[in-house]
Fold:
Amino acid sequence: MSKLDKTEVLAAFEKAYEAANGKKPEITAKSGWYSVDGGKNVRLADLVTLTEELSSGAAPAAKEEAPAKPAAKKAPAKKAATKKATPVTATKQQEYTVTKPNTDGFTAEEFWIKELAERDHDTRLPRGVV
Structure:
Protein backbone atom coordinates (compact mmCIF):
# COMPACT_ATOMS: atom_id res chain seq x y z
CA MET A 1 0.00 0.00 0.00
CA SER A 2 1.35 3.39 -0.89
CA LYS A 3 1.67 6.22 1.58
CA LEU A 4 -1.13 8.77 1.42
CA ASP A 5 -0.47 12.44 2.05
CA LYS A 6 -3.12 13.66 4.48
CA THR A 7 -3.13 17.26 3.27
CA GLU A 8 -3.46 16.31 -0.41
CA VAL A 9 -6.20 13.74 0.21
CA LEU A 10 -8.26 16.04 2.45
CA ALA A 11 -7.86 19.00 0.08
CA ALA A 12 -8.94 16.90 -2.92
CA PHE A 13 -11.88 15.48 -0.95
CA GLU A 14 -12.98 18.94 0.13
CA LYS A 15 -12.94 20.22 -3.46
CA ALA A 16 -14.88 17.23 -4.76
CA TYR A 17 -17.39 17.45 -1.90
CA GLU A 18 -17.87 21.18 -2.45
CA ALA A 19 -18.38 20.64 -6.19
CA ALA A 20 -20.97 17.92 -5.54
CA ASN A 21 -22.85 19.53 -2.63
CA GLY A 22 -22.19 23.26 -2.96
CA LYS A 23 -20.83 23.62 0.58
CA LYS A 24 -17.60 22.84 2.39
CA PRO A 25 -17.59 19.68 4.52
CA GLU A 26 -16.90 19.77 8.24
CA ILE A 27 -14.09 17.24 8.73
CA THR A 28 -13.37 16.02 12.26
CA ALA A 29 -10.10 14.13 12.77
CA LYS A 30 -9.56 11.81 15.70
CA SER A 31 -6.83 9.19 16.00
CA GLY A 32 -6.44 8.54 12.28
CA TRP A 33 -10.20 8.40 11.66
CA TYR A 34 -12.07 11.14 9.84
CA SER A 35 -15.72 12.07 10.24
CA VAL A 36 -17.36 14.15 7.51
CA ASP A 37 -20.27 16.33 8.64
CA GLY A 38 -20.78 14.19 11.74
CA GLY A 39 -21.22 11.00 9.71
CA LYS A 40 -19.58 7.62 9.99
CA ASN A 41 -15.86 7.58 10.83
CA VAL A 42 -13.67 6.51 7.90
CA ARG A 43 -9.96 6.05 7.26
CA LEU A 44 -7.89 8.19 4.89
CA ALA A 45 -7.93 5.51 2.18
CA ASP A 46 -11.74 5.50 2.28
CA LEU A 47 -11.72 9.26 1.73
CA VAL A 48 -9.73 8.65 -1.46
CA THR A 49 -12.46 6.32 -2.76
CA LEU A 50 -15.17 8.79 -1.73
CA THR A 51 -13.27 11.52 -3.60
CA GLU A 52 -13.20 9.39 -6.74
CA GLU A 53 -16.91 8.65 -6.43
CA LEU A 54 -17.76 12.32 -5.91
CA SER A 55 -15.54 13.37 -8.82
CA SER A 56 -17.07 10.83 -11.21
CA GLY A 57 -20.61 11.66 -10.09
CA ALA A 58 -21.45 7.94 -9.80
CA ALA A 59 -22.91 8.16 -6.30
CA PRO A 60 -24.82 11.06 -4.76
CA ALA A 61 -22.89 12.66 -1.92
CA ALA A 62 -25.94 13.10 0.30
CA LYS A 63 -26.40 9.34 0.50
CA GLU A 64 -22.75 8.76 1.40
CA GLU A 65 -22.42 11.52 3.98
CA ALA A 66 -25.83 11.49 5.69
CA PRO A 67 -25.40 10.88 9.44
CA ALA A 68 -29.08 9.88 9.78
CA LYS A 69 -28.60 6.71 7.68
CA PRO A 70 -26.00 4.59 9.52
CA ALA A 71 -27.10 1.29 7.87
CA ALA A 72 -26.59 2.53 4.29
CA LYS A 73 -23.70 0.16 3.54
CA LYS A 74 -23.14 -3.15 5.30
CA ALA A 75 -20.89 -4.82 2.72
CA PRO A 76 -17.15 -4.09 2.99
CA ALA A 77 -15.98 -1.43 0.60
CA LYS A 78 -14.10 -2.60 -2.47
CA LYS A 79 -10.49 -1.57 -2.61
CA ALA A 80 -9.85 1.19 -5.11
CA ALA A 81 -7.44 0.83 -7.97
CA THR A 82 -3.88 1.81 -7.23
CA LYS A 83 -4.42 5.33 -8.51
CA LYS A 84 -2.79 8.03 -6.49
CA ALA A 85 -4.60 11.25 -5.79
CA THR A 86 -3.28 13.96 -8.02
CA PRO A 87 -1.32 16.63 -6.18
CA VAL A 88 -3.53 19.65 -5.69
CA THR A 89 -0.89 22.29 -5.12
CA ALA A 90 2.87 22.44 -5.02
CA THR A 91 2.88 24.16 -1.63
CA LYS A 92 1.87 22.39 1.58
CA GLN A 93 -0.81 24.85 2.68
CA GLN A 94 -3.79 23.55 4.57
CA GLU A 95 -6.82 24.01 2.34
CA TYR A 96 -9.22 22.18 4.62
CA THR A 97 -10.58 22.73 8.08
CA VAL A 98 -10.32 20.12 10.82
CA THR A 99 -12.32 20.58 14.00
CA LYS A 100 -11.55 18.90 17.29
CA PRO A 101 -14.32 17.08 19.13
CA ASN A 102 -16.05 18.95 21.94
CA THR A 103 -14.01 18.58 25.14
CA ASP A 104 -16.37 20.25 27.61
CA GLY A 105 -16.79 18.74 31.03
CA PHE A 106 -14.57 17.03 33.56
CA THR A 107 -11.83 14.58 32.86
CA ALA A 108 -11.36 11.79 35.39
CA GLU A 109 -8.32 13.59 36.79
CA GLU A 110 -10.20 16.88 37.25
CA PHE A 111 -13.11 15.04 38.87
CA TRP A 112 -10.92 13.42 41.54
CA ILE A 113 -9.01 16.62 42.27
CA LYS A 114 -12.32 18.46 42.85
CA GLU A 115 -13.93 15.56 44.75
CA LEU A 116 -11.07 15.08 47.20
CA ALA A 117 -10.59 18.83 47.72
CA GLU A 118 -14.21 19.14 48.92
CA ARG A 119 -13.82 16.49 51.66
CA ASP A 120 -13.18 17.50 55.27
CA HIS A 121 -10.22 15.20 55.87
CA ASP A 122 -6.87 14.95 54.12
CA THR A 123 -6.87 12.43 51.28
CA ARG A 124 -4.48 11.56 48.50
CA LEU A 125 -5.20 11.44 44.79
CA PRO A 126 -5.31 8.05 43.07
CA ARG A 127 -2.15 6.75 41.44
CA GLY A 128 -1.34 8.36 38.11
CA VAL A 129 -3.08 11.64 38.92
CA VAL A 130 -0.62 14.52 39.22
